[in-house]
Amino acid sequence: MAAWVIRKERQGEPVDAFRLEEIEVPQPGAFEVVVRVMAAGVNFNNVWAALGEPVSVFRYHPDEDHHIGGSDASGIVWKVGEGVTRWKPGDEVVVHCNQASYEDPEVHGLDPLAAPSQRIWGYETSWGSFAQFCKVQAQQLLPKPRHLAWEEAASYGLTYFTAYRMLIDRCGLQAGHRVLIWGAAGGLGVFATQLCALTGADSVGVVSSAEKGELIEKLGAVGHVNRGDFDGMMRRGGEGPDEEKARFKESRRFCQAVEEILGGAPDIVFEHVGRATFPTSVLAVKPFGKVVICGATSGYQLDFDVRYLWMRQKEIVGSHFANAWEATRANELIEQSKIRPVLWRTMGFEGVAEAHQLLRDNRHLGKIAILVGTTAEGQGRTAEGPGAIRAEVGA
């Protein structure tokens, strides 16, 4: 099969690290499935895989001499392994990216995300979606929404299922909540915004342009804040006392702007930026409120005034992707068109390296999908219904 492959000796910029190679088609083991990939979604995790930062992916799967990335896919079941009874060849599916061993007791009663074997498929494992065939655990499969084209169905899993767990399960999002969403026009934020609107919560999104603000308000946000108007609130590290005093003043001004839009301090702050924004997040959330965080794109070493955490009894909630049940429930909302994918650009299979370089250089505007087995956009729909929202702006 044709596959875009990263090898240890050429880790570096994505345009150099990804090479198209001929690789043997994987064979399914017990409780595994091989899927003919029709389309794949591009995420920043395989920019890290290309760079070999913050750790090499070969540390996660040392027995493999190659890495085939890709943590989002839509496709057709090709072959099933021993013990698989729920799926059969020909089934149309999407793939969620959480893997764990069936032997870990945490999988059977606690949460697969707590299992010591837990890995993100297509990043901490090989055999991801940037190939004509991929190999997954049977529990990773979900029915493909029939009204979506292949590229639309491949575009949402990682970011949407992550946002669903963060807000619905980890924070108990409900009607009347006020929510502050960082990066609201990005891959995570567009789904957080839609979940708030669907639930009856009010959200305000932090964006970098008026056009992005217009997008998230169409998705259901009650308003937006342009982060460029409060650039001085961003933590950059190494601030002196005077710089920190000025930064704190800007953070307070930002919090006031958020409260004016929401009508009060947020119950929940949706975090994935990390070092630059986390001190402001802790300051902004109301007493007994929650800051839920799933990533740290600006840096993972956090420095903030902890007095605002303990004296006002606020909570920091960590969240990582989603389990199969959460992914299933979230996917049902896609099937019902209550939540819609937001897709910026679709590229051909030859564009895998270029797509990741666009992410690396921050020249993308939203979610990118890759055509793999399908030959053109729009193929794969077998039912009527609204497809993805085509965004001219995004992350």
Keywords:
20% strand, 19 strands, Rossmann fold, Quinone Oxidoreductase, Chain A, domain 1, seven-stranded mixed sheet, 2 domains, 395 residues, alpha/beta
Q: Please identify the structural class as seen in this structure.
A: alpha/beta
Could you report the average pLDDT, rounded to the nearest whole number? 95
* Proportion in β-strands: 15-25%
**What is the radius of gyration?**
21 Å
C-alpha termini separation: 32 Å
Summed up:
The protein is an alpha/beta fold. It has 11 helices and 19 strands. 26% of the residues lie in helices and 20% in strands.
Descriptive overview:
The strands form 5 sheets. Strands 3, 4, 5, 8, 9, 17 and 18 form a 7-stranded mixed beta sheet that branches. The protein has a 6-stranded parallel beta sheet with strand order 12-11-10-13-14-15, with helices on both faces. A two-stranded antiparallel ribbon has the order 1-2. Helix content is 26%, strand content 20%. The protein is globular. α8 links the parallel β13 and β14. The protein has 2 domains: 227 residues, Quinone Oxidoreductase, Chain A, domain 1 (Alpha-Beta Complex); 148 residues, Rossmann fold (3-Layer(aba) Sandwich). α4 packs across α5, α4 packs across α10 and α7 packs across α8. It is α/β, with parallel strands linked by helices and 395 residues long.
